[in-house]
Specification:
Strand content: 5-15%
CATH superfamily: Decaprenyl diphosphate synthase-like
Number of strands: 6
Shape: globular
Number of helices: 8
Largest sheet: 6 strands, parallel
Bound molecules: 3-methylbut-3-enyl trihydrogen diphosphate, magnesium ion
Oligomer: single chain
CATH topology: Undecaprenyl pyrophosphate synthetase
Number of domains: 1
CATH class: Alpha Beta
Structural class: alpha/beta
Radius of gyration: 19 Å
CATH architecture: 3-Layer(aba) Sandwich
Length: 255
């Protein structure tokens, strides 16, 4: 990883504030960014990759444990063929062009979502990126590709049902940790901060189980305009929140 965290991270930790362990981002607004410039939507998606690069780097520098980025939803297949095609080829370009650098800075790359629904070439790149970076100890980066929260829950339910039918577990063994362990995010902490760009206040099928107690921060900036400075502001907003988890005797917020 890059050595020194920036001054903002030092200030936050000096204030005794814990960084969110898991940040999840709905990277929205690429199309609007392009249409405001009378450009094809694909250009907005290409520009969005630059923000991804910056935010991944910054998350690693700050020492955030896990970052999950929503890049393609199970519902995004319903977009026009041209746009889906452009997104798919951009995905491949990203895997081919970015993994060396991510590996160099110690990022561990994984994909969440139904990988079986992606083309063979994508699956090969995902398998290679996952294997190459598996032992890295820096940021845990999860790219949500062909991801839908309902689809993930259905796949987890099937997996539990199969083990019940095979007599490996009984229905009484199914509790929240058992279900969490069958999700694509198994082993990761729950989402602390759920961030969405471009001003929309909805989840769009992103991490419904894992975000049950996430703090939601909606920013107006379109994803290609989302800078490190905007990211810091969103983190500042997160630090102002009083997280209670349904209890009353929550510890006083530090700082
Ligand atoms: C987000 O940008 C990227 C994906 C969903 C793949 P959009 O393409 O949704 O951009 P808007 O919301 O139309 O502006
Ligand atoms: C959510 O954005 C999906 C991704 C960012 C990949 P959408 O643009 O697809 O969501 P809706 O359609 O506005 O809910
Ligand atoms: Mg959108």
């Amino acid at each position: 990883m890059e050595p020194a965290p920036p001054s903002t991270a030092r200030a936050w930790s000096a204030g005794g504030r814990d960084l969110p362990r898991h940040v999840a981002i709905i990277m929205d607004g690429n199309g609007r960014w392009a249409s405001r410039r009378a450009l094809p939507r694909e250009m907005g998606h290409r520009e969005g990759v630059k923000s991804m690069r910056e935010i991944i780097r910054e998350s690693g520098r700050l020492g955030i444990e896990a970052l999950t980025l929503y890049a393609f939803s199970t519902e995004n297949w319903s977009r026009p063929r041209d746009e889906v095609g452009a997104l798919m080829s951009l995905m491949l370009d990203c895997f081919r062009g970015e993994i060396d650098e991510l590996n160099r800075v110690g990022v561990r790359v994984r994909v969440i979502g139904d990988v079986s629904g992606l083309p063979d070439a994508h699956r090969a790149e995902i398998a290679s990126a996952t294997a190459r970076t598996a032992r890295n100890t820096g940021l845990k980066l999860n790219l949500a590709l062909n991801y839908g929260g309902r689809d993930e829950l259905v796949r987890a339910a099937r997996s539990l049902a199969r083990d019940c039918a095979a007599g490996i577990i009984s229905p009484g063994d199914i509790d929240e940790p058992a279900l969490a362990a069958r999700l694509d995010t198994a082993g990761l902490p729950d989402v602390d901060l759920l961030l969405r760009t471009s001003g929309e206040s909805r989840l769009s099928n992103f991490l419904p189980f894992q975000s049950a107690y996430a703090e939601l921060v909606i920013v107006d900036a379109l994803w290609p305009d989302f800078t490190i400075d905007e990211y810091h502001k969103a983190l500042d907003e997160y630090f102002k929140r009083d997280r209670r988890f349904g209890g009353r005797n929550h510890p006083a917020r530090p700082g």
